[in-house]
């Protein structure tokens, strides 16, 4: 691990963001999240890192430093939940809901890393007519960072998913971070991502039944010895028969009138489109179906769409695994950013 830049991942979840950094040659020292299930998976997939269950609403950087023995770090990354921001006038006010974001700021203040990367929902940029964005920039500028932000689309960086996320990157010495340009001319589609995975459930660790059917599958299998987390969901006969009427890439509009209203959400009865990147993988709301099979994607199929390698095994209940996958930053996108950040270290 000598000379590798060091990383702390705050609000790490199962570790999609930090996994991208590991693949780019960083040494992830620590991941912190308040959700125990996510930390169990994090520890299992980040072998050299400490993973601790802690509420960053209550724990200070000083306490964490004392507890872990980590005194210095090169990069701090993470995605504090900011959906609940409360604003008054032109300020983020000292409301309880803002404290998790403030906790991220406090860690950066305490450790003074060379670079930080903060990830969030795209509308953080426009929230309160830009008040939140401007406050974020100002908070970090006061700590001596040059801050830039951008909303990136994952499918432009090799991820088979049209997922938009906002990233704020702060650097020192007045060097302004330049976001990487899109890396792929041809987007990876859903079929490229999951067509080698079968219709039925598989026992964890079973060997692949076929060779990889795309360059992406070759990449994502890596040196994996088998398939994990491929347990299908058994739907009711009614659900199966309704979804069988929807074509590849179709949705409720393809159904007869009397069936359209069987689920009162406009995303219901949507099939993935085999020829396009997937829409955003959520945390398991069960409205999106496989482009070919009459069922929702498995955890492994969802993980593929999120660009997790097959060696990344999710632990916990199936519901918990779906949530871990859905909450994560796609590792391939994280990896592209991590490589670019290296130039600033």
TrEMBL record:
Active site (UniProt): 82
Annotated keywords = Methyltransferase, Restriction system, S-adenosyl-L-methionine, Transferase
Per the UniProt record, which EC number(s) apply here?
2.1.1.37
CDD domains this protein is in?
A: Cyt_C5_DNA_methylase (cd00315)
Biological process, per Gene Ontology: DNA restriction-modification system; methylation; negative regulation of gene expression via chromosomal CpG island methylation
Q: What is this protein called?
A: Cytosine-specific methyltransferase
Q: Which GO terms describe its molecular function?
A: DNA (cytosine-5-)-methyltransferase activity; DNA binding
